[in-house]
Design goal:
By secondary structure, the protein is α/β, with parallel strands linked by helices. Helices cover about 40% and strands about 15% of the residues. The chain contains 14 helices and 16 strands. The protein has helices at about 10-20, 30-40, 50-55, 65-75, 95-105, 125-130, 150-155, 170-185, 200-230, 235-240, 260-270, 280-300, 325-335, 360-365; strands spanning about 1-5, 25-30, 60-65, 75-80, 85, 90, 110-115, 135-140, 160-165, 195, 305-310, 340-345, 350, 355-360, 370-375, 385-390. The strands form 3 sheets. Strands 3-2-1-4-7-8-9-10 form an 8-stranded mixed beta sheet, sandwiched between helices. Strands 13-14-12-11-15-16 form a 6-stranded mixed beta sheet. About 45% of the residues are buried.
Length: about 400
């Protein structure tokens, strides 16, 4: 099987590594440095399993800048390009998908195109109308964590494939074939698999991430209440979560949900609810903003003149700080007149925007009155009197 993958971020690269165990895979990107890194079997992103597999496994994987050549040869073309949320249109910016589809339309319209990028509800059906020359399109949502993307593909919670027309046997056959490609490359067996209408698949993705955001917002709000009244947050959470319907997971307080997926997916779902009565999804978005404002107020209560932000990343073993919640906290502190600096080894150079960046932890800690850390780590222990965190369990 020959497969082309457009985009080598967490989704695209993890799929490229996964599928190249048993298939010929061409990974396409527009950044030469990423192409060179992948071909040298070095991961351009922080992901332990991707690093291990690239370095030790026999993979039939080639990265390339030549999209036309890659797409021309492929039976399946997977699109895993970024779809950022556009605050003006209040929808995902799907222009990167369109750019790929226009090339496919020209060089290989008979290939089966699988969209892995997150898309608005109704997108696949509408896109197939706009590209009638490409008759075979599927949508298969991903459910991956940053820094653990390949692990989550090797041990998937489920495989979902959406088809635009459920009454067309050829579309169902392609969906089943693609699901089998994912399942055959995974380490687990008996993976729950669903072939559904594409619109339902789009909903599954957005509602799943919005529920995760809801859970984050819920336990953060519980923590806000407990801290406000001097209560033991851990005891309350543990007592609540002993109910098996709730469970002892995804309950560690934070500064708010962030990252690439949850903020934009909740905003997109809120936009999709524009003509439908709803209270919960808009409330999730508001609650996250309120939490960050509350965190700013608690830091300001210490009356610092200089605050140090320990790490822009919000999750362990990640190198991504797009949309991290801490950035809104930083801006709130600065607007209140507080000087803000950052300790972040992932940032090259001495600044992030106009915030100064330290690379030596001792110098960083000595320069600030309060150290703000979304997650506590061992290297912060010596400076714990200065640390403000809501991390109870020291896990993501």
């Amino acid at each position: 099987m020959t497969i082309a993958i457009a985009g080598t971020g967490y989704v695209g690269l993890s799929l490229a590594v996964l599928l190249s165990q048993k298939n010929e895979v061409m990974a396409v990107d527009i950044i030469p440095e990423k192409i060179a890194s992948i071909n040298a079997r070095k991961s351009p992103i922080a992901d332990a399993e991707i690093e291990t597999y690239l370095g030790t496994k026999e993979l039939h994987l080639t990265a390339t800048l030549d999209a036309e050549e890659a797409y021309r040869k492929a039976e399946f073309i997977i699109i895993a390009t970024p779809t950022n949320y556009d605050v003006e249109s209040k929808f995902f910016d799907t222009s990167s998908i369109d750019a790929v589809l226009k090339v496919i339309e020209r060089v290989n319209p008979k290939a089966c195109v699988v969209i892995k990028s997150t898309i608005p509800v109704g997108y696949l059906k509408e896109t197939m109308r706009r590209y009638p020359a490409i008759p075979n399109m599927l949508f298969s949502p991903e459910f991956l964590r940053e820094g653990r993307a390949l692990y989550d593909n090797l041990h998937p919670s489920r495989i979902i494939v959406g088809i635009a027309e459920t009454d067309r046997p050829e579309h169902r056959a392609l969906a089943e074939r693609f699901a089998s490609l994912l399942a055959d490359a995974a380490l687990d067996s008996d993976i729950p698999t669903r072939i559904v209408h594409a619109t339902e698949a789009e909903c599954i993705k957005l509602f799943a991430n919005s529920y995760l955001a809801l859970r984050v917002a819920y336990f953060n709000e519980l923590d806000t209440y407990a801290e406000q009244y001097g209560l033991n947050t851990a005891q309350i959470i543990e007592g609540v979560c002993l109910d098996p319907r709730i469970g002892q997971h995804y309950n560690n307080p934070s500064f708010g949900y962030g990252g690439y997926c949850l903020p934009k997916d909740t905003l997109q779902l809120r936009a999709n609810f524009a003509k439908t009565p709803s209270e919960i999804v808009p409330a999730i978005v508001r609650a996250n903003a309120t939490r960050k404002q509350y965190i700013v107020s608690r830091i300001l209560a210490r009356k610092p003149s200089t605050v140090g932000i320990y790490r822009l990343i919000m999750k362990a073993k990640s190198d991504n700080f797009r949309q991290s919640a801490i950035q809104d906290v930083m801006h709130g502190l600065r607007e209140a007149g507080v000087s803000v600096c950052i300790f972040e080894p992932m940032v090259k150079g001495d600044s992030f925007g106009d915030y100064p960046v330290y690379h030596d932890l001792d110098n960083f800690a000595a320069s600030v009155d309060v150290i703000v850390a979304n997650r506590m780590t061992e290297e912060l222990r010596p400076y714990s009197p200065k640390v403000y965190t809501r991390d109870l369990y020291e896990r993501d």
